Amino acid sequence: MILIKSEYGKKGRGWRRVLIALSVLLFLSVAVVAGAGEIVVMTPMQDSIIYARRPVTHLVVKVLNAADVQRLQLEGEGDEPIKPSGVWSVNDEHYAHFRIGLKPGRNKFVLNPGSQTIKVSYRPLRTLINIDFEASTVYRFHRKEAIPAACGQCHTAVLPADSGLDPKEQKRMYGEFAFSPECYSCHRSQASGNKWQHGPAANVLCNLCHKDPDKGGRIAIPGGKPAENCFKCHVQGRQWGKMAHMHGPTGTGDCTICHNPHGDEFQFQLWEDGAGKLCVACHGDKQRFLEEGRSVRFRPHGIVQGGGCIACHSPHATEVRFQLYKPINDLCSGCHMKMKGMKRGHPVGGHPLQGVRDLRRPDRELACSGCHNPHGSEYMYLLIGDNLGGHVCSKCHH
């Protein structure tokens, strides 16, 4: 605030002071506007929604004043100031790249100098179904053109010398349409940053999935059911739709619920251990069967903590209920071999094991799971109740 004192009775000197003060204010306001325009945010778009599998995005700014480059930093909400990952100068213009972490929901950052506020929303990406990537509020860097003119000064279709890939050989094998060295320039982590990589990403064949021939080859995110794109290569997946019992993600046609199409830290490009930890992300009621030492009374089935859920269940589809690889008794006797082929005589002579209706579950045939919990139990032998006093038997024999 500027306090102006005026003396109107002294031959107009007061008016001159007012005019001088207003001139100073006008100069300062022009300077502030000019200063704010010296750093231009190129990406991401203000107030956009960022869908990503990992809570990270990149902020790119153009700095017109070289003096600001050394002072450049980004401040998050309660975090330490973030310095640029790198600054590149081309034709007397400076481009700074920030790698920034995100949290689900609203994220706000302040860019200095200039105190520009940048707001974006982050939504973790677990499925591509029902996401309209064409919506104007959804962040897509390549929305209008493959490489914006400003970015094309550095990011060109020249393969980096240290990539280990032979451009001529790649072009001979896959053609220009698929091989995408320009993508590697920015998306290097997609091609080499994961322990388990999907073949197209590892070989920089981005255009196999991300070119839209119907729109002049513009870079796009595949729409519809992801499986339609996946099955172009993974042709065996077409058989799953013909099977009687499909896993939910398979039935919806969204392979990306479990598999990262670029690569991830677990085998088969899974985002979590596929033996069991991935499964309980949806099947939360089975979490307790994977926990060791949860209770001295609780006994998990050994195969669950050993081979995991996929030891018995197919993660895609089978002809057997619950996506089991075989009917229950055949599956159980694969480990408990003394029971193989047995139709009567367990737990007592003459007791049926199959071929009759399960009195506890009238819609099913009697099987091992009629008395035993296949995942775990608080009772000995994984029984569904205490065998002392006939509490198991009384479930059927009232």
Q: Which architecture name of the domain at 39-153 does CATH use?
A: Sandwich
Q: Mind telling me the CATH superfamily name of the domain at 39-153? A: Immunoglobulins
- Strand percentage, roughly? 15-25%
- Return Rg in Å: 32 Å
Predict the CATH topology of the domain at 39-153: Immunoglobulin-like
Order of helices and strands: HEEEHEEEEEHHHEHHEEHEHEEHEHE
Mean pLDDT: 80
- Low-pLDDT regions: 1-12, 18-37, 173-177
CATH class of the domain at 39-153: Mainly Beta
* Spatial shape: elongated
Number of strands: 16
Structural class: alpha+beta
The description of the largest β-sheet is:
4 strands, antiparallel
Strand order of the largest sheet: 1-3-6-5
Please bin the fraction of helical residues: 10-25%
Number of DSSP helical runs: 11
Q: Give the N-to-C terminal Cα separation.
A: 89 Å
Walk me through the structure.
The longest helix is centred in the N-terminal third of the chain and has 24 residues, at 13-36. Mean pLDDT is 80; it is low at 1-12, 18-37 and 173-177. The chain has 398 residues and is α+β, with helices and mostly antiparallel strands. Among the domains are: 1-36, no CATH class; 39-153, Sandwich (Immunoglobulin-like); 161-221, no CATH class. It has eleven helices and 16 strands. A four-stranded antiparallel beta sheet has the order 1-3-6-5. The protein has a four-stranded mixed beta sheet with strand order 2-8-7-4, with no helix packed on it.
